[in-house]
Design a protein that fits this description.
heterodimer, A: about 400 residues, alpha/beta, Aconitase, domain 3, 3 domains, five-stranded parallel sheet, four-stranded parallel sheet, 15 helices, B: alpha/beta, globular
Chain lengths: ~400, ~130
């Protein structure tokens, strides 16, 4: 693998111990995936932030890495943590968890990482351009960057993203290269898919069918930031899909000559929805997987304004929370018994430890992960039904 | 005898071989306190990887496995070296941060030439295995 003089110096330890470890990680990845060289990245999004998934092993490593003098070289953003940094007590997060979570967050922040704590950086203006190389890790953010924005990123793990942040580089392989960005499955959608709810169910279904391949969709209506967010998130969760195309919607559309074709009809989507549902009654409704946009929070506020009390928790980025606070949406929702939390979400918060067992969601990704990560029973439905029943 | 391979994680280690033909998920598959393989599906179930040169096809499972490898090292129960058929990122990253040598893609199949209990030397700087 070719390394520049600067990269050699990092590898030899001339830029300190943290940069050396980081470069060792990137060189090993480069070898494993057959990269010829390193390329600069314009931004990094780091996962591995919830104490629930990182545990003591992860916490100790991140703290030690910070102590070694690890500092990020390029704009670096971070995934949600296991709790709202300000309002964790209101969430019912156990004290010991909170203390360790705060240590983990402080260690990341001491490296110079911007405390975004969001899986939807694209909702707060972090939108790399067509063809831009980045190193992002959260699977829906990766999918959104590659597909909706046409930027280029592999699905990084926590440590490899951190290594990219510290060196400003990533090995050139996988989705950074033109030849690996060609769809191999054409998905013909033969039924009306135009709502978030249907996009999420379609994502759950197609992810399972194409597992790791690159699908290209035909026949989708109303593809926009929000609907594509739900599609990409569900597909990444059910089938590790990191890139997809939609005819006349995504900036890129490349299909292999000898592609396979699959058709999706209404019956298949209905069956998928039935399988996602494991409970009729819920203790709580959670919205914001991936993190809610300002428009989505406004919608929740409008939907619950008229009805009775509703235990609904909305998760979003701190920046959007502040806007929602200004606009009065937070007050409206919280007056009706709901909550709006920042920095975290229902998947990475310790829901089970907080005593919650049955959750209503409008997200295909949450429906996939909550049963295994948080031992939840799921009601998957559209936002209007969840909030009106 | 010197067998050449590919250097993935640097360092030098000497120890007894422990072989498993099953891939390893470090998260949930190995006890970080004792170094014992606790995955019942693994053919080396119940054996300790502490101080061994661990030979296995590749890693699998959660990426948190990288941090479990570091924990094993801190608890003094990590392997002294690892040999993979083809290393993947979870094990590679874990070994680098824990400073455990790894060599993969040996020019001869390690399952044919290595046996449990053999004493070997692994050199992750040069990418070689000696016995």
């Amino acid at each position: 693998m070719f390394l520049t003089k600067e990269e050699e110096r990092m590898l030899n330890g001339e830029h300190g111990e943290a940069a050396q470890k980081a470069m060792e990680i990137l060189v090993a990845l480069g070898k494993i995936y057959g990269a010829e060289k390193m390329i600069p990245v314009s931004s990094v999004q780091v996962a591995g932030v919830s104490y629930k998934t990182m545990g003591d092993a992860g916490l100790e490593f991140i703290e030690e890495f910070a102590c070694m003098g690890a500092k990020v070289k390029v704009p670096t953003f971070i995934n949600p943590a296991g709790m709202d940094k300000m309002r964790w007590k209101e969430m019912g997060v156990p004290e010991e968890f909170a203390q360790k979570q705060i240590r983990l967050m402080n260690a990341y922040e001491s490296m110079g990482i911007t405390p975004t704590y969001t899986c939807a950086p694209y909702h707060i203006g972090i939108r790399p351009k067509l063809g831009e190389h980045v190193a992002w890790s959260e699977s829906n953010a990766v999918s959104f960057a590659n597909s909706v924005l046409g930027a280029r990123t592999n699905r990084e793990g926590g440590p490899s993203a951190l290594a990219a942040a510290i060196t400003g580089r990533t090995p050139e392989y996988g989705l950074h290269l033109d030849e690996n960005r060609i769809a191999n499955v054409l998905v013909k959608v033969k039924t009306d898919v135009s709502t978030r709810f249907m996009y999420g169910a379609l994502g759950a279904l197609v992810g399972k069918m194409v597992k790791g391949k690159i699908p290209a969709f035909e026949g989708l209506e109303n593809a926009n930031d929000i609907t594509m967010k739900y599609l990409g998130a569900a597909m990444a969760a059910s089938g590790s899909v990191a890139l997809y195309y939609i005819k006349d919607a995504t900036p890129e559309w490349k299909l292999k000559e000898d592609y396979e074709t699959i058709e999706v009809d209404n019956k298949m989507i209905k069956e998928t929805i039935e399988n996602m549902n494991t409970t009729e009654d819920t203790e709580i409704i959670t919205i914001g997987c991936p993190h809610a946009s300002l428009e989505e929070i406004e919608e929740v506020a409008n939907l619950i304004k008229e009805g009775g009390m509703k235990k609904v928790w909305v998760f979003t980025a701190r920046k959007i929370y502040e806007k929602a606070l200004e606009k009065g949406y937070v007050k409206t929702i919280e007056n009706k018994g709901g909550k709006v939390f920042a920095d975290t979400c229902m998947v990475v918060a310790p829901l089970y430890e907080m005593g919650i067992r049955r959750t209503g969601v409008n997200s295909g990704k949450a429906a996939k992960y909550l049963p295994s990560f948080n031992k939840q029973k799921i009601k998957y439905d559209n936002i209007k039904k969840l909030l009106s029943e | 005898m010197i067998i050449k391979g590919r250097a993935i994680s640097k360092g030098v280690g000497k120890g007894e071989v422990l072989i498993t033909k099953d891939s390893i998920s470090f998260l949930g598959g190995v006890d970080p306190k004792t170094g014992i393989i606790i995955d019942k599906e693994n053919e080396a179930f119940g054996k300790s990887i502490a101080g061994k040169v661990l030979v296995f096809p590749r890693g699998k499972g959660s990426t948190v496995g990288s941090y479990v490898i570091l924990q094993l090292k801190k608890n003094g129960v990590a392997p002294v070296g690892m040999i993979n058929i083809e290393c993947e990122t979870i094990v590679a990253v874990g070994a680098i941060i824990a400073e455990i040598p790894i060599v993969d893609k040996l020019e001869k199949n390690p399952f044919d030439i290595l046996k449990n209990g053999m004493n070997i030397k692994i050199n992750g700087n040069k990418g070689i295995v000696e016995y």
